[in-house]
Design brief:
- By secondary structure, the chain is α/β, with parallel strands linked by helices.
- Helix content is 23%, strand content 24%.
- It contains ten helices and 17 strands.
- It has helices spanning 17-26, 66-76, 91-94, 97-106, 124-135, 165-168, 206-213, 228-237, 279-285, 305-313, and strands at 2-8, 11-16, 32-36, 44-52, 55-63, 83-86, 113-116, 141-143, 150-153, 156-162, 184-189, 218-222, 265-267, 289-292, 324-326, 339-343, 351-354.
- The two termini are 17 Å apart.
């Protein structure tokens, strides 16, 4: 069922009422929700964490459209915001960040941390964000995460895959492309228990470790605008487990299939441009579902057909639905509007819904 909502003169939003109803029904307290707002050729993502001890939390990754992001947070009603992340300082990822931060501060929702890639960009938008954070350093702690940094929020592990410290050390000489400075995040729900790996062989057998590795997880990778150089570092620093002749190797690769970059859902980097990701990387990630943030009439011609082909190539050729959801697309039938991915823990597969809203309409959450 489609609901017509008038946005402004001459413009109508084709809200998908059935999907809106399903989202509200399935977004329970134990649900991890990743909400990719329809903001055109830009990014604004909200992570709604499962509730813990009666408290709800939301994080924000990038903010191109402040009004739409704020409206979504007002609908979700988080008790606190553990972090707001600017993946990199391009305008289409940070245009609304200053307004969002001011709204959070004014509404007693100042984020505990602000995650900054550390790349300095000569723009007033970026400068204003830095100045605002300096003014409120007593409320908001600025963090500069690099690959391997991780934290657990409400039973969701948030792991930073990029930027690599090798790329970050090249920032000041501008030897790193600004897109390759992007913070790339992986979410794991529920997280695996690292404790067994610290036990002796007598107490932690291969079977015990294998059981932990086989834990059914919901995994999401948010690719920012990372391009080839960043993905080369990621695949190097998070390798798949390989068999060796080392007799002291505790983890048996014949028992455990350790693939740290596999994911169920991929937020395709760089709006699905031809520079964002390669077929080889997609084959390593092997997402079941992919989300691309694009405008209906993209001035950059997103999504690019080469990247679409790469993402489709890993899917079963007999399956018509290739699992790609576009927030916007030049073909009306492929437009999803805001895309909501719901994860109910390890027992069920992720559920993805397109809400059908336009760029200028509020996401019906």
């Amino acid at each position: 069922m489609t609901l017509l909502v008038k946005v402004r003169r001459g413009e109508v939003a084709m809200i998908n009422a059935a999907n809106v109803k399903l989202v509200k029904k399935n977004m329970k307290k134990s649900t991890l929700a990743v909400i990719t707002l329809n903001v055109g050729d830009g990014d604004a993502i909200i992570i709604k964490f499962p509730s813990k001890k009666g408290k709800s939390a939301c994080a924000v990754v990038d903010c191109y459209n402040a009004n739409k992001t704020i409206a979504a947070l007002e609908a979700l009603k988080p008790d606190y915001i553990p972090f707001i992340c600017a993946t990199h300082p391009h305008f289409d990822h940070t245009a609304g960040m200053k307004k969002l931060l001011n709204w959070c501060i004014d509404n007693d929702l100042a984020p505990e941390q602000f995650w900054d890639s550390g790349f300095r960009h000569v723009s007033k938008t970026h400068y204003d964000i830095i100045r605002l954070l300096q003014e409120h350093h007593d409320k908001i702690r600025t963090v500069f995460p690099t690959s391997g940094y991780e934290t657990v929020i409400h039973n969701v592990r948030v792991l930073v895959l990029s930027p690599s410290i090798r790329l970050k050390n090249r920032y000041d000489t501008f030897g790193t492309n600004i897109n390759n400075a992007s913070i790339v995040l992986k979410l794991e729900y529920p997280p695996k228990d690292i404790a067994p790996y610290y036990l002796s062989e007598e107490k932690a057998s291969d079977q015990d470790l294998a059981k932990n590795e086989r834990l059914k997880q919901n995994t999401v990778i948010l690719g920012g605008d990372a391009q080839f150089d960043a993905w080369a570092r990621i695949t190097d620093e998070f390798p798949e487990l390989q068999h060796t002749k080392n007799r002291g190797q505790m983890i048996n690769s014949d028992v455990i299939k350790h693939r740290p970059l596999r994911c169920q859902v991929l937020k395709v980097p760089h709006h699905m441009s031809k520079h964002g990701i390669s077929l080889e990387v997609v084959e390593t990630l092997r997402p079941r579902h992919s989300i691309a943030s694009c405008a209906d009439k993209s001035e950059h011609k997103f999504p690019h057909e080469l990247t679409v082909m790469a993402v489709e190539d890993i899917r079963d050729k007999k399956v018509k639905d290739k699992g790609i959801r576009y927030t916007g697309h030049h073909k009306k039938e492929l437009r999803s509007g805001t895309v909501v991915a719901l994860f109910q823990g390890s027992s069920t597969k992720p559920k993805l819904y397109g809400l059908g809203d336009t760029v200028k309409s509020t996401a019906p959450l």
